Structure formats: structure tokens, C-alpha cells
Amino acid sequence: EQVTRGALGQAVAEVIFSDFDRYAGHLETIAFIGPAFAVSLLGGFTADKRGTSVRWEDALDLCEALLSDPDVRQSLDNVADENWRGARQMMVSLLEAGVEKPKAEVGGEKHNIRVPPELLPRVRDLLLTLLDDPDPGPESDRPAENFFGHNDPATVALNHVRPRAMLALIQYAAHRALAEQEETGDDRAAHTVVSRLEPEVREALTRKLDQREEPSSAVHCVYGWNLYRLRWLDQEWLEAHLDAIFPEGDDPETAWLFVAAWDAYVAFNRNTFVRPFFEKLRPKYERAIDNLARDLVTRTHLEPSRGLASHLLWEYLKADYHLQSTEGENSLLLRFFKKAPPKERGGAAWLLWRICQDNPKYLNDIWPRVRHFWEWRVDEAARANHPNDFDTEMEWYARLPLVAFELETIRSIWTLLEGTLPHVVRFEHHGLGWDALEEYLVKEVQRDPLRAIQFYHLMHKRLSRSVWFYSKGESRTIIETAAAHESSRQEALALIDTLARSGNHQYRDIYQQYAG
After folding, report:
1. CB distance 302 to 328 below 8 Å
2. How much is the average pLDDT of 505-510?
3. Does pLDDT of 304 surpass 60?
4. Element (H, E) at 104
5. Which residues of 334-345 are buried (b: 16+ CB within 10 A; e: fewer)?
6. Does residue 332 contact residue 315 with C-beta atoms inside 8 Å?
7. pLDDT tens, 446-498?
8. Alpha helix positions (H), 5-55
9. How far apart are alpha carbons 47 and 24 in whole angstroms?
10. 131-141 residues labelled b (16+ CB within 10 A) or e (exposed)
11. Is 111 helix (H, G, I), strand (E, B) or coil?
């Protein structure tokens, strides 16, 4: 639609990489014409699939040449085709690609774009330079309301130079350490006191934890994001700096830096649980729960509250304390459920169901504690006279009988089902909880037709209003199966009568068949 220098830069890059040896001597000259050309050339190194590897010496030469120019290094101009910030972002992407795992290409072949070991120090030094980039500035680090990245440091981090450089530097350190380990065969994973960090990298990581040196919450969130990787790289360094990564101050700036790092930690490490490390972080978990209760959280789509709940659920499932014991009363999971808003409690209930659903091999081991937790939530709901606050939670607990079908019968969990029911039946339309219970009863009616149809009848009696809905196969299966058994026939016919009195005549044929 319009002529742009960016399109011209891309066309020039395609020509250069089509015959690189012929044009290699002109790279710097062309790149310095403007950022539109530099961006295309930098991106061209990893976009080029003609060779088996990237021409890293030429790529690093170009990065070093560009960053030696103060105008290139310091510019924050966002005018189209004059944006050197974009060129620096492309540099980070290029360097990051050089320390990532090889990626599969078309046809399943691996395209190896890793930097050769002898060039890694140059990658490190470039990233250390970019770690002092002026981007993001104060305004772009904290976008105003209704602007992209508002209250979302992780999103800001992915779209600005300095935090991206921090991400790439940590990735570089892990890549270098793994390469060294493979080369020497020295696996020191069993040792707790070991550093895989170079002094230059360790110094940079320490320096950037100083709020006066680095006020950016986007940069700060990278520490939480990579907490387990940093622990592997240097556990002693990490544990010595936990209070700097998750600062304890109550002033707004310090509190926000805690939230930025913490939410990134639980969002990006949702499925990682290491008990000794969890215990070291216990005071931080307590503060995070209090922050959640105060709505002091980031606004990322990554749902850090679910990451927090995941950690707390796994801690409980792998523990042996009773919820009504002193240890249980002081547990972080109970603290979460007593303080978290209803939406977050509902998300935690979903996670509990997913843990059971996704871990069938361990269900026998964890089910007693899952059941005990469900009992506690039902008791809490009953004690509070079943308020709406519990509805979303209970809808997910209603799915638990399906995953535990081989471990429980309807008789053994009848009290739990009854306690869940007030929250399942109050919706205007049948929701997830109702559908889950119907799906469960389809299976249970084969095993215990009497109790299954009794509970199904109870579900309909508890409805606060007549609910008109299309005929569902599950409903007919439950009623028809129960009617076919002599022990449960009268209860099935009574349910059909109850439905008919509310205007639902879908099961008249079953009634006529068995009523005699």
C-alpha cells in the first residue's frame, strides 16, 4: 500500500543472503544506512536456511559494530524506519537464538543455529552491553491504564530490550554451563554448593537487583521467571539474594517489585515443586497470599493465582498433616482458601480436579488427601449456610467422583455429593457441575441403580425453579436404566412424575412401559 524503507531493507537482505560471500564486506555500510536495513540484516542470519549453521562471526561483528555507535546504542526514537530500538531488539533475538536448543525444521531435520563455543564470550559481552540499554524507559516500563502491558511486567519484558537481554543472558549462562558439563562429563547436580555462573554474569545479576541501579519491574520479573534456572546455576547466590528478588518493603515501589517477580515465578513455574526450596520460600508464599487478598497482583493472562494455587496444592498432596491439626490450620493452602477471592478459589478447585485427572498413576496415593480436602470445603460451605461464594469451587468438586470412580462408590461419597449439591442446582441453566454429576450417574447407575436414581431425584427436587432444557442422552440413560431394575424402578417412576409436574414430559414413554 505504501513504499517503506523496511520493505526495501528486507529486499536488500534477501539479495545479500542469497550470495553472502559476495556481499559480506558491505554489511556494516548497509546496516548503518538506517535501522530498517539493520533489522532486516540481523534477522537474516537466523532466517537463512540455505546453510547448516549461522555465520556467527559475521553476525557478531555486525552487532559489535552497531553497538559501538552511541546513537545506535542510546536511541529511543519510535518514528517509523528510524527506530534503532527495534534493531537492538533484533540483536537480542539473534543472540537468544544462538543459545537455544536446535529447532526442528520442515521434514523433521534439525537446523543447528547455536553459537560455536569459542564465540560464546562475545555473545556474553554483547548481552552485558544490552543489559544497560535505555529501553524500557519509566513510561514504557509502566504503561498507563488501557495501554498494552498495563500492570503486566511479563508482557513488557517480552517487548523491550533490557528485560529481553536479561532473559537471554540467563539462557546463555544455562547453555554455557550445560555445554561445559557435556564436554567434561562433570555432572555436579548432586552438589548444592556449586556455581555455574561466570563472575561477569554473577556481577551483572547482582547489580541489576539494586532498585537504584535497576528500577524496571519488567527486568525484575525476569528473576522470578527464571528462579529455578538461577537455582541450578548458582544455588548459593540465589538463596543469598531471595530477599532482593522478593523484597519485603511495604512502600508501593518495593511492593510492586515483589509482585512482578513473584507472579512471574508462579506463572512460569506452575508445575515445578521442590519441597526444600518451597520451605525456604514459605514467608514469600504467605506474603503472596496476602497480596492476592488485597488484589495486589499483576494483570497478566498467565493467571499467576493459579500458579500459586498449584504450588500450594502440591505441597498439601505430598504432605502428611491433617487439615484439622495444628499444622493443617497453619498450612499455606488453608491460608489461601480463607483469604483468596471466590474466583481464585474456583481456579484452585479446577486445578485440584486437573491434578487428579492428569495423574491417574498417582491417584491411589493422593486421593485420600483430595477427598479430605473436599470434605473440608463442604463443611466450610455448610457452616456458612452455602453462600454463592462457594459455587464455582463446588462445580469443579462435582467432577471428582468421575476421576475417582474406581476408588469410591456413591454410598461412600453420598455426604460429599449432598454437600456439593446446593451450589450445583442454583444456576439458571444447568452448568458444569450438573453436567458432571449426570455424567457420573450414567456410570454409577450401572453399578448401584437405586442409589444413583435416588440422588438424581434429589438433584431435581433441589432445583429452585423449573429448568427447561433440551433432551439429553445422559438423563434418559439414567432414568431408563434405573426403571429397568426392579430395586430402583419405583424411584425412577417417582422422578418421572416429579419432572412431569414441572412440565417436563420427555420420559412419559418410560413411565408407560414400566408403570404397569
Report:
1. no
2. 92
3. yes
4. strand 103-104
5. bbbbeebeeebb
6. yes
7. 999 999 999 999 999 988 665 555 557 899 999 999 999 999 999 999 999 99
8. 5-18, 20-23, 27-31, 35-47
9. 16
10. bebebbeeebb
11. strand
Assess contact for 464 and 425: CB atoms under 8 A.
yes
Residue with cell 414441572: 502
Q: CB of 195 within 8 A of CB of 237?
A: yes
Phi, psi of 111 (to 5 degrees): -105, 105
Residue 104 clears pLDDT 50, i.e. is over it? no
What does DSSP assign to residue 115? P
Cβ distance 452 to 478 under 8 Å? yes
Q: Give the mean model confidence (pLDDT) for residues 108-116.
A: 71
Quote the CA–CA distance of 310 and 297 in Å, as a whole number.
16
Question: What's the pTM?
Answer: 0.90
Q: Is 392 exposed, middle or buried (0-12, 13-18, 19+ CB in 10 A)?
A: buried
Is residue 476 within 8 A of residue 441, CB to CB? The reply is: no
Amino acid at 475: S
Cα distance between residue 222 and residue 205, in whole Å: 11
